[in-house]
Amino acid sequence: MQAYEKLKANFQRAGLLNEVDAVLHWDQAVMMPEGSAPMRAEQAAELSLVTHEILSDPALPDLFEAAAEELIRDANPWDLANLALMRREHAHAAAVPPDLVVAEQKAAAACEMRWRQARAEKNFQSLAPDLEKLLDLVREIGAAKSAALDLAPYDALMDQFEPGGRIEKIEPVFDELAAFLPDFLGDVLDVQASQEKPLQPSGPFPVEAQRRLGERMMGEFGFDFDRGRLDESHHPFCGGPMGDVRITTRYDEADFSSALLATIHETGHALYEINRPSDRSYQPVGLAGGMALHESQSLALEMQTARGLPFLTHAAPIIREAFGAAPGPEWEPENLSRLFSRVVPGFIRVEADEVTYPAHVILRTRLERAMIAGDLVVVDLPGAWNDGMQDLLGLTPPDDALGCLQDIHWPSGAFGYFPTYTMGAIAAAQFVAAARQSVPDLDGHIAAGDFAKLTNWMTVHVHSQGRLADTDEILTRAVGRPLDVGAYIVHLKTRYLN
Amino acid sequence: MQAYEKLKANFQRAGLLNEVDAVLHWDQAVMMPEGSAPMRAEQAAELSLVTHEILSDPALPDLFEAAAEELIRDANPWDLANLALMRREHAHAAAVPPDLVVAEQKAAAACEMRWRQARAEKNFQSLAPDLEKLLDLVREIGAAKSAALDLAPYDALMDQFEPGGRIEKIEPVFDELAAFLPDFLGDVLDVQASQEKPLQPSGPFPVEAQRRLGERMMGEFGFDFDRGRLDESHHPFCGGPMGDVRITTRYDEADFSSALLATIHETGHALYEINRPSDRSYQPVGLAGGMALHESQSLALEMQTARGLPFLTHAAPIIREAFGAAPGPEWEPENLSRLFSRVVPGFIRVEADEVTYPAHVILRTRLERAMIAGDLVVVDLPGAWNDGMQDLLGLTPPDDALGCLQDIHWPSGAFGYFPTYTMGAIAAAQFVAAARQSVPDLDGHIAAGDFAKLTNWMTVHVHSQGRLADTDEILTRAVGRPLDVGAYIVHLKTRYLN
Fold first, then answer.
1. B17–A226: do the CB atoms touch at under 8 Å?
2. Is there a contact between A399 and A122 (Cβ–Cβ < 8 Å)?
3. Running DSSP on this structure, what letter comes out for residue A228?
């Protein structure tokens, strides 16, 4: 096992440095003063370069061959999967020359800074030159990875976030959803219009009380504060290095639900990171799966669980007491459940409900595919965006801040990421439906405040699997079929039309 | 300049990674949950290893030779100093095999964790085995560096923190101080006993008000919050990466002075980091000087300035108003000045006054020299410590938490660091005396709240010099002589016997 052990040592080094990078990223989003951004970009680029050197080492292919021989004798599936993932990581790294790695990183850092200003000023054209430059570099990377991995450029880029993700498999699933949703949305809006509006508890809701409530809920879902933190950032995320999982949220004193639901969402991501196979630490196979699986875990808690009646039967009095409010109809579980699942077509993806969210993703997927293919140039993006929003949701953004400037993904160089949000929503419905079939009275346990039945099921079927298999295979083993929109449609009909 | 440019590129890589390491260290002290310590130690060790590989690269010596040839033609002192520092950094790194680097790092991380527990339990013997193991590794490193650098082992270790620091130069200075202090301490205590005790403003002093006060003072001294932060940690420190200087303090609601003075102390360190030559970013010559110079900058603000009457003439009403207190004799500048310069022999170094502090350092310097020389074994440390405290300050610690367990330095592997505290106190007196000679009515400016005259003098004579010269040479250029106890003794007499 000499070659394989050597490989493991190399990939452990890269894995450790990736965790260092995770500290930098968390710090940048949560702690770093803005003026430090240019120097931090240099520091982070250097770290990426070191990792890239380890992963692109030309000595690796010979070790892969020797390791494959070694593993024939003792074909442990974890080691075989690990070797395959090592080859994949090497292929991704070796495809891109170091200069291009650094150039893309620096262009992304600069573009992201420009984007913050452009969004604040609602001025897309001030971003366009930086975004064009970045897109050129991303397309160059896509072309290089396309050749090395024998994938279409867009698939090669998506594969960075979603190993094994291929647009030809995803598109039919999205098409099915896209065919279902417009009529369904109409039905949901009709149902809502026929009912009384849910009541909005009135604030203010002090940040400190919101934070304590969020921490309590994290604890109830199994988050360990001796190995992780809750903080604030402009956009909620889950990050931090291995063994130190850190989530963030943001507080609105007028509406406690945004921070609470974001905290629960990120707790779903966190449980995945906490429960991935620790005996494969720092090896590729020990990582969480692709972003679709990751999002399935956050949405299983936020959308599938925390916005539903069973969870709120448990949580409503806790929430009310957290703010020292007197009992009242606005605090009834059913009212909160209707409030948290209110469908309102809007401009902003991160504020979208379950029913309209896929339209936001489908729009972005179309546009980024066109940009990578060279069929859409950056200066035409606002027009194409607004046409798409009109087409999909019947809305036209009044400005680009509510339109194509709203997301950080493209200005940070992430093309091929957006589809994973809706893949995750679909997979979440599949997982939760399977858990409900497998665990007797799952909703009863949730209503009683016992979430371990659900989270343990997820740990067994998802978290503990690391990257032993790709998204479709993990799904197939857990629920009997690959990504499939059926369970999601059942979930939507049950929640929104009953 | 091909070889020199290559060298600069290599050292820039190491410099960038050192800044990444600074983020990890800050995070570990300020943000990291305790349970994450073991994994963080692995991650940090890997980063050290990468930096060590860059600095110990066997290709460097040939480049040094070629660069020396190149620089003959255009002998810029910055580049010549930079090349000499590169050689020094390479010699330090190449002396120690990578396995030993990692072994020492991990032993230090484990020892530091054990120390936290041992100190809490006041149980030195539970630390002893880990500290012995760490000391063995540090001695091994000292021996290796001794051979490579042609220095005594203790000097070779000290050279890591204080480039050019040699115990044979420091000892006579310390001896002179040690000869002066005991009688002087007696005189000071007599004077204090003959006066009324200064009045203690009564709290509580809410943390939030203390934080705002600290931030205001930092701003008055020139700290830029767009490129730095103030946070809390168990021990105050100044850290963070280049361009993002972060200081910490700790708050006591019963006594505002500890946080305020610690904040001003760390601001002194921060100004050094902020004002070091940015056009030499990430090159060895662009770094701040050794720890003695660094400490001189913190003590110039804290001890020389903030505890003195001119500063407090300006600050006393600001402090009082920060806590919404009514005027009264306890808030008079003279009272606060006497309160902040009260001399009380005690067990704890970090709480010690200017007059007794050197005894703490002299004790530690003696003991760590004996440990490195093999003349003192770890299990005998508590006895030797207590004997020394009795000898130097006439006190015997009631337990090891108030004795040899109080400092983190040895359990974190830092031997040869302690002398720099008192070197810094001495140098601070030299710098401030020279600034007072050079700037007309310096104390008047300070009393008027204008600190720029003082800090600009420090920037010109210290901060902007980077590592162009060592401590003694920087001192000589700025004040006309190397490290010399005269100005310190004048300062002590002026402040404590007048």
1. no
2. yes
3. E
Query: Which sequence spans correspond to the domains of chain B?
Result: 2-161, 164-498
Half-sphere exposure of A377 (CA within 13 A, CB side): 3
CA dist., res. A288 & res. A284, Å (int): 9
CA dist., res. A48 & res. B179, Å (int): 55
Separation of alpha carbons B87 and B61, rounded Å: 8
Cα–Cα dist B223/B300, whole Å: 16
**pTM to 2 decimals?**
0.95
Task: Determine phi and psi for B477, rounding to 5 degrees.
Answer: -65, -35
Strand partners, A247: A230, A238
At residue A475, the 3 state secondary structure works out as helix
Digit-coded pLDDT (tens) for B69-90: 999 887 899 999 999 999 999 9
Which architecture, in CATH terms, is A161-498? Orthogonal Bundle (1.10)
How many Cβ atoms from other residues are within 10 Å of residue B283's Cβ?
A: 23
Q: How many beta-carbon contacts under 8 Å exist across A and B?
A: 107
The set of long-range contacts for B175-179, using a CB threshold of 8 Å and a minimum separation of 24, is B176/B485, B177/B358, B177/B362, B177/B422, B177/B426, B177/B485, B177/B488, B177/B489, B178/B358, B178/B359, B178/B362
When pLDDT is averaged across residues A439-447 and rounded to a whole number, the result is: 97
- Candidate from A19, A32, A244 with C-beta closest to B244: A32
Q: Is the pLDDT of residue A1 over 80?
A: no
The Cα–Cα gap between B428 and B462 comes to: 11
User: Helices (DSSP H) in A150-245: which residue ranges?
Assistant: 153-161, 167-194, 207-220
- Confidence category of residue B152, pLDDT binned at 50, 70, 90: very high
Task: Tell which A residues from 362 to 401 touch B, by Cβ distance under 8 Å.
Answer: none
- List C-alpha distances in Å: A199 to A252, A305, A335: 18, 20, 7
Q: What is the C-alpha to C-alpha distance for residues B29 and B14, in angstroms, rounded to an integer?
A: 23
Q: How far is A266 from chain B (nearest CA, A)?
A: 18
Has domain B164-498 been given CATH number 1.10.1370.30? yes
DSSP symbol at A463: G
Which of B12, B16, B208, B224 should we substitute to test contact with A (largest number of A Cβ atoms within 10 Å)?
B16
Encode burial over B171-208: b for 16+ CB neighbours within 10 A, e otherwise. eebbebbeebbeebbeebeeebeeeeebeebeeebeee
Per-residue tokens: B8: 């600069």
β-pairing verdict for B228-232 and B245-249? parallel
Q: Please give the Cα distance from A221 to A236 (Å, whole number).
A: 18
CA geometry: angle at B436 spanning B431 and B437, to 5°? 100
Measured CA to CA, the distance from residue A237 to residue A25 in angstroms comes to 11
Cβ contact (<8 Å) for B36 and A243? yes
Contacts A243 to B, Cβ<8 Å: 35-36, 38-40
Tens of pLDDT along B167-197?
999 999 999 999 999 999 999 999 999 999 9
Q: What phi and psi, each to the nearest 5 degrees, are found at residue A277?
A: -65, 110
The CA distance from A141 to B18, in Å, is 29
Kindly list the strands in the beta sheet with B238-239, ordered across the sheet, starting from the edge strand earlier in the chain. Answer: B228-232, B245-249, B238-239
Quick one: which of A156, A155, A182, A177 has its CA closest to A168?
A: A155
Q: Angle between the A333-340 and A256-275 helix axes, to the nearest 10 degrees?
A: 80
Distance, CA of A21 to CA of A13 (rounded, Å): 12
CB of A126 within 8 A of CB of A88?
A: no
Distance CA A297, CA A173 (A): 19
Question: How distant is the Cα of A283 from the closest Cα of chain B, in angstroms?
Answer: 14
Alpha helices in B276-348 (DSSP H): 291-299, 309-322, 333-340
A-chain residues near B245 (CB < 8 A):
none
